[in-house]
Design a protein that fits this description.
The complex is a heterodimer. By secondary structure, chain A is mainly alpha-helical. Chain A contains 12 helices and no strands. Chain A folds into 2 domains: 51 residues, no CATH class; 155 residues, Orthogonal Bundle (MetI-like fold). In chain A, helix 3 runs parallel beside helix 7, helix 3 packs antiparallel against helix 9 and helix 8 packs antiparallel against helix 9. The two termini of chain A are 44 Å apart. Chain B folds into 2 domains: 236 residues, P-loop containing nucleotide triphosphate hydrolases (Rossmann fold); 133 residues, RNA polymerase II/Efflux pump adaptor protein, barrel-sandwich hybrid domain (OB fold (Dihydrolipoamide Acetyltransferase, E2P), Beta Barrel). A 6-stranded mixed β-sheet of chain B has the order 6-7-8-3-9-10, sandwiched between helices. In chain B, strands 13-12-11-14-20 form a 5-stranded antiparallel β-sheet. In chain B, strands 15-19-16-17-18 form a 5-stranded antiparallel β-sheet, with no helix packed on it. Classes of the chains: A mainly alpha, B alpha+beta. Chain A: Keywords: Cell membrane, Membrane, Transmembrane, Transmembrane helix, Transport.
């Protein structure tokens, strides 16, 4: 006979493992959340002093922080748009057409993902320097678009490759011109891949530090600001921004799941 | 054997010298074919025989290497698929997964700028008995329902010709039978010309008015199902369409309307009208007879066989009871594996494997074929079909963009 605790364990081991893994992932975020309500004693927000909502009431109370945050958001939006448009077109070209240099392109597209960021950042910086391009917003944007591109191409290409070419033929057979076929059939079917690529791009661009620091000149993005301030003492507001971003991301995912679930559920 | 391409107003489709080659491989040899308006026409053949390629050329999804396609008397060879008055029911249906049944069916109407589609879509869904399914997504439907959506989506556009590419291939046997009758009913109801591509000879014979049997990129024979079955013009057609017993025989002479043959010492009679091949005394010919035309008696009862019937001795090798009939395999001096289907009316208990028997049949049921061809042509066609992927799949990627 098995003892009762053993039986309980056998039944719940998957749940237990899941909870532990989730805890491992979420605990750091909870710490960030908790310390956004701290009023630190010195300059460093590493030990709990006492509860305060000061930082939440004045999120932009630290000099330059909100400026760098807006810059990072702008960069992320532009880089996402650029990389998604370019990457989607590249993915279609790679998935659909046979042309000279296709294999080489396929391989090169992977490089930014495989190469150490330091190497890429440094070589890109050297390139800009040699071309006498002034570092700043545009150099960062070019750098971000470049490394986001690979992720969009990979995500969209996987989706396009798995699409049944007969669907587009069926659309043409049903009087859809090539443009209508693309808009009505191809694009909606590729949309999940494009959305995944875009989300990835936004996240990657927003929190990139290494490549950015090689190509920023005097411009300071949000990750650079956090890194810089961490050496002098992190303001509590950094935790506030971090928590806010986390909450927004979680809400977006939950909303997405709910919409998707309702769509599936409504018709069964 | 093909029909002469003549420009008649009643022709829904006319193919003239239509061919398709991929590199050095010829998928379809120059083909002349006329499909009368309002008919149910089947292109029957094994995988890779060029039937799907032919269909895709009619739809405009494949560019012909030579020749032309005319629909309703108008040359459409140069038109893209979306400008041709044909619609296709694809193999595996190709329903748009992100659109519901209603929008799938309305797709063609909307693309042609028709605003009020509600009435038409409703009527069409009723015709295919899917009235309550309008808001379902394709993946929520069973195979048979998806198939009906595919038919509705194509038919609603009232095409001049409806093309069906192995539309029942993905369904199980019972559902396939049901859909065969359903499609036939719909065709009769709407009166549109159907061109049906299939590798299933029973399906082709059940549904079509005219069947074109294709083999290796050519039309072997064309005609009404019963005509093809009773008078196959080649060993391929004889073997591919149902089962045939082909006996190699020597011509000994002609008398009246009959050709006298001898095979392994047995004298057989073949009506001259049913022999497509040139015969000369001393020459060889293949005498064919369908298994269900043959009667089987035990050798002890040989005297009871009426005079004037073709008779062949043999020994039962195998028998299988399949309910409606019993199928025997007979080893005979004229042919090592003769097949005989005997309806289960009165079963003779002596007819078991090993028993000596005599086969006999009415000479009028014998058909003659040229002995110069491969006697086994078309025999393994169905087995090949199962092993290979459907033809046309390899070219799909090229045509995708």
């Amino acid at each position: 006979m098995q003892t009762r605790p053993m039986r309980w364990l056998r039944k719940n081991v998957v749940v237990l493992a899941g909870v532990l893994a989730l805890g491992y992932l979420i605990l750091p975020n909870l710490v960030v959340l908790a310390f956004s309500f701290n009023k630190p004693k010195g300059r460093f927000n590493y030990t709990w002093n006492h509860f305060s909502t000061d930082a939440w009431q004045h999120p932009c109370g630290v000099a330059d922080m909100c400026g760098s945050l807006t810059l990072s958001l702008r960069l992320a939006v532009y880089a996402t748009i650029g990389a998604t448009v370019l990457g989607t077109m590249t993915a279609f070209a790679l998935a659909r057409y046979r042309f000279r240099g296709r294999a080489a392109t396929n391989m090169l597209i992977f490089l930014p993902m495989a190469m150490p960021e330091v190497v890429m950042g440094a070589s890109l910086g050297t390139l800009f320097l040699n071309m006498r391009i002034r570092f700043g917003f545009w150099t960062i944007l070019i750098a971000h678009t470049m490394f986001c591109l690979s992720f969009v191409v990979v995500a969209v290409k996987a989706r396009v490759m798995s699409m049944d070419p007969r669907l587009e033929q069926a659309a043409q057979d049903l009087y859809a011109t090539p443009a209508q076929t693309f808009l009505r059939i191809t694009l909606p079917l590729a949309a999940p891949g494009i959305a995944a690529g875009a989300l990835l791009s936004f996240a990657l661009s927003f929190d990139d530090y290494i490549i950015t620091s090689f190509n920023a000149g005097n411009t300071v993005t949000f990750p650079m600001f956090v890194w810089g301030s961490a050496q002098r003492g992190t303001p509590v507001q950094v935790n506030v921004i971090g928590t806010a971003m986390f909450v927004v991301a979680v809400l977006l995912v939950v909303a997405g799941q709910l919409v998707g679930g309702r769509r599936r559920g409504a018709r069964t | 054997m093909t029909t002469e391409p003549t420009a008649a107003p009643g022709d829904a489709v006319r193919l003239s010298a239509l061919s398709k080659t991929y590199g050095s491989f010829t998928a379809v040899h120059p083909l002349d074919l006329t499909v009368p308006a309002g008919s149910f026409f089947a292109l029957l053949g094994a995988s890779g025989c060029g039937k799907t390629t032919t269909l895709r050329m009619i739809a405009g999804l494949e560019d012909p290497t030579t020749g032309s396609v005319a629909l309703g008397g108008k040359d459409v060879t140069a038109l893209p698929p979306y400008k041709r008055p044909v619609n296709t029911v694809f193999q595996n249906y190709a329903l748009f997964p992100h659109l519901d049944v209603y929008e799938n069916v309305a797709f063609g109407l909307r693309r042609r700028g028709i605003k009020s589609v509600k009435q038409q879509v409703g009527d069409m869904l009723d015709l295919v008995q899917l009235g309550g399914m309008a808001r379902r997504k394709p993946h929520q439907l069973s195979g048979g329902q998806q198939q009906r959506v595919a038919v509705a989506r194509a038919l609603i556009n009232k095409p001049e010709v409806l093309l069906l590419d192995e539309p029942l291939g993905a369904l199980d046997l019972k559902l396939r039978r049901q859909m065969q009758l359903e499609l036939k009913r719909i065709q009769t109801e709407v009166g549109i010309t159907f061109i049906h591509v299939t590798h299933d000879q029973e399906e082709a014979m059940t549904m079509a008015d005219t069947v074109a049997v294709m083999n290796a990129g050519r039309v072997e024979q064309l005609g009404a199902p019963a005509d093809l079955y009773e008078n196959p013009g080649s060993t391929f057609v004889a073997n591919f369409l149902g089962t045939s017993n082909l006996i190699e025989a020597e011509v000994t002479g002609t008398s009246g309307g009959d050709i006298q043959l001898v095979a392994a010492g047995q004298r057989l009679t073949l009506p001259a009208a049913r022999c497509g091949a040139e015969v000369t005394t001393g020459g060889r010919v293949l005498a064919g007879v369908r298994p269900e035309k043959i009667a089987l008696v035990h050798r002890d009862d040989e005297d009871a066989i009426a005079e004037g019937r073709n008779r062949v001795p043999g020994r039962i090798v195998d028998s299988s009871f399949i309910g409606v009939s019993t199928q025997y395999v007979i080893d005979s001096p004229v042919c090592p594996e003769l097949e005989v289907f005997v309806p289960n009316v009165e079963r003779d208990g002596r007819l078991v494997p090993g028993a000596p028997v005599v086969l006999h049949w009415n000479p009028a049921h014998t058909f003659g074929l040229d002995a110069a061809q491969d006697i086994d042509a078309g025999l393994d066609a169905d087995a090949v079909e199962a092993a290979l992927s459907p033809d046309g799949a390899g070219t799909a990627a090229e045509a995708a963009v």
